[in-house]
Structure prediction request, 202 residues.
Amino acid sequence: VSVIDPANPMGNKVAPPVLIEEFIVDGTPFHVRQKSEEVLWIPPGEGNISIRYTAPSFITAEKIKFRYRLEGWSGKWSKPVFQRNLHFNRIPPGNYRFQVLACNSDGVWNNGGAVISFQLTPAFYQTKIFRIGIIFFLLISILLSLIIYRSYKRHLSRNKYKNSTLTANQVERYIKAIINLLEVKKIYRDPNISSEKMAQLI
Prediction:
């Protein structure tokens, strides 16, 4: 049994156009140019993104479905959905391309859809240079600790600094703590690492 819509007996063969109406990052709206290859530059932030899109149609607009993907994040197409608002939280710095497609009530897809490309700029502590600097700092700390430890043991062997409050075991524990931060906790991967935080951990 087939059902024919008297208002539209031939069916809707026109794919619905798709528009990205709103693009907000960390609470700041950015102007979206439709059908533009321009890459939006987003300043450093938390990477919380909200996107609102639509497909203007005068025929059963409530039945229009959408599929979307965020290249650079997962890259996989979503299942067809009716929702017109999306939220992505804590997206890391990088280059991304959001694309959304629309399908009318008769199953005709707009395969071009709407696209927006953007770049989330990393904060200074998220850059490779900063992380290399952290690793270098930790290596220097280990080297200095070894030098201090060996020097202290040498002095102990000569019966010097007997009244010192610093013991060889304390120095050794300090060295092990630094090695643990590097090898086990891999602290250099933490984008929020700071000298104060390292001091607390050690």
Summary: The CA atoms of residues 18 and 55 lie 5 Å apart.
